[in-house]
Amino acid sequence: MNIVATIQETLDYEIAGIKVIEMIEFAVIFIIAVIIARIARMAVRRRFKEKLSPTTLNNMEKVVYYGIILIGFFIALPKGVSLGGLLMAGGIAGIVIGFASQTVVANLISGLFLIVERPVEIGDSIAVGDVSGVVKDIKVLSTTIRTWDGIYVRIPNEKVFNSNIYNYVAHGARRFEYTIGIRYSDDASKAIDIIKGILAEHPLVLKYPEPDVFVSELGESSVIIAVKIWAPSSHWYSVKKELLWKIKTILEENGIEIPFPQRVIWMAGGEKKEGRGKGKQR
Amino acid sequence: MNLQTEEFEIEVTGRGKRRLYRRRAGDEEVEKIIYADDGNIVVCPVEPVNMPKIGAAEHLMVELKKSVIFEPDTKNTFYVKFPIEVGVFTVDKKDVERIDIFTTVKAKYALYGPPESGIICRWWRSDVYAEEPEVNPLKEGVLRVDVENKYHEWVELQKVVFRAFDMKIFYNEHAYMHGMLTLLKKTTGETSFNTRKPKNMHGAIDIYAAKGIKKFDKKYFMEWGFK
Fold first, then answer.
1. How many CB atoms lie within 10 A of CB B155?
2. For testing contact with chain A, the best of B50, B120, B211, B215 (most A CBs within 10 A)
3. Domain that holds residue A140
4. Could you identify which of A149, A173, B120, B195 might form a hypothetical disulfide with B168, taking C-beta atoms 3.0 to 4.6 angstroms apart as the criterion?
5. Among candidates B111, B117, B212 on the partner chain, residue whose Cβ is nearest the Cβ of A208
6. Per the domain annotation, does A102 fall within a domain?
7. Shortest Cα distance from A138 to chain B (angstroms)?
8. Cis link prior to B52 (omega < 30° from 0)?
9. Which of A188-202, B79-93, B203-217 is predicted least confidently?
10. Is residue A155 included in any domain, yes or no?
11. ipTM value of the model?
């Protein structure tokens, strides 16, 4: 009986006007709300994963998650606690914390601007300052990026907001280019036709805007052909990787070679000798 | 099941729950294992925007080999061909799942509009026909285009862009779509599709329905001209 009475007494004990039993109830309901919020977030992800863009899905998950937690918080709130008082206390605490941590507030506001302005979205390939990679998450205080070599980088939103942002996939198409040198003895027109033929065969080299292939420079050792190609932003890198070697191979199959650097040397006696910068000519 | 043509071969072998799906088209071969109690395999044409990279485009641009000029306030009809992509699906009472999509036609993409705001389209060039043309059903389908020029001036048309999401493909001996183009200004118009099933044709499974996305009637606004 004594144990029961002690437990009862402990539960009825008041701290700052709130009974211990009410605090336990608050904790239990709040934990349940968090569990429900996590389940709901997972359900939203499963339901809409293939139907919504990563950014929209992420925002929807956050609304559902924090909405349920907030509802759970207010349901769990002990009866003795005045909501007005809590909000006022929270407001005052917010102001104090805000003044005390201006950087956090700056990050928060920058984060809100980033979410509204949307210069980047989750899944975009971007560069911010000296960091480049894929955007994995945009939170209210920071943006996380997975760099090309797989490293997790968290950038405060204030820095993102104040930096030049290069978004490589914001537009539907982007251009890249090669410069290819051929021997002076080769037929540049034939080389251009061959390159144009290769580009016409590749599905992801855009028909419009048309690729541009032309002699751009008469170099020291070779005739330089510029190849400017438009490709879908989402696939440009794979196209770029694929095409250069293909162009080189097919040009060589057609007797057009890419020379090593060369220099013509005139000897003092008037005898002319041809030298090469590196090794043998291919 | 064995479906063999000059262009491709589809084979489903095995007994009981476990089946082996095998497809060959050109140099490409795909094999997948399917576990199913029941359900059917359906092979049909799908929206021609999936190959060679799913997600690269969601629109089809048909460039006309000859320009067509329309008188103000008139309604006309012409036919063009469109590229065929073949979809293979498993279908049961509850769900449709895509097994494979392939094509025997060379794919090409193009940008419609400026780089900063244009869209990537699957590109196709076609003659313009007054009547339904004959097609190689494994490579081409027939697209009927009803054009209404609501503008008070003549409008010249060199290309038309359709959104795959709006498409509805039907098929019997060949694939068929019925598109509509309303010319609003000299350089703007709207495209949409007639989704009513023609007589003696089957409705193809569309890739968006297979993904569980509900379709609704919508028009695509061609804002970057017809040339």
1. 21
2. B120
3. 119-167
4. B195
5. B111
6. no
7. 23
8. yes
9. B203-217
10. yes
11. 0.86
